[in-house]
Amino acid sequence: MEILAIIPARGGSKSIPRKNIRELCGKPLIAWTIEATKKSTRITRVIVSTDDEEIASIAKQYGAEVPFLRPKEISGDQAIDIEFLVHALDFLKEKEGYEPELVLRLPPTSPLRTAEHIDEGIETLLKNSDADSVRPITEAPKHPYKMWRISESDSRFLESFLPESFTHMHEPHNMPRQALPTAYIHTGAMDILRLRTIRELASTCGNKVAYFFMKPEDSVNIDNEIDFELAELLMSRRNLL
Description:
Layout: E1 3-8, E2 23-24, E3 27-28, H1 29-39, E4 45-49, H2 53-61, H3 81-96, E5 102-105, H4 115-127, E6 133-139, E7 148-150, E8 158-160, H5 164-167, E9 184-186, E10 191-194, H6 195-199, E11 209-213, H7 225-240
Parallel strand pairs: 1-4, 1-5, 6-11
Antiparallel strand pairs: 2-3, 5-10, 6-9, 6-10, 7-8
């Protein structure tokens, strides 16, 4: 079975300049994801989708393929995942006649995700034949029933982000967390997709999304400097074990 890992790594990060190749515990950030894919027992091919020559060079040094440079029009802040996935698949099919059965989206911003996590996700999809995709989840650190928004009718005040007609609870924001239904978030560490989910449903999840759990300490997704520092601390601790 052909299982393709696609690592997206555009060069234009604004929150942390050059984030994808910034050094984390002695290696460029992207290296941690490439090395995890190389240790996977199921992934058969690893490519990096980037618009940046320097990122491409570093990715190749760590063993990933970079068969193309991603077009600028699908590399900006507003670009969505389905665009670079379709672009990569179209390129490989046109140039090589290559099409995988499963596709993984593996962002470099989740360096604490391991080969074991990757393989668990793949096995979960293979065991659930009717699933369109698999996503790793962890319990939400902030419950959505406790979220607020600024009132549109009077911007001096707050109102519940979710109305009572949705929660069926009076003032859930004042209730103990234990009284609320458990909420989960997609860790962002990966998406595992059937080819048809991308091709036929034009989606990065589809209609039936299976799942597996990741621990919070493995699920850091780097969006800002605080995230980067946390990931570095946790990686340093892991490397000492």
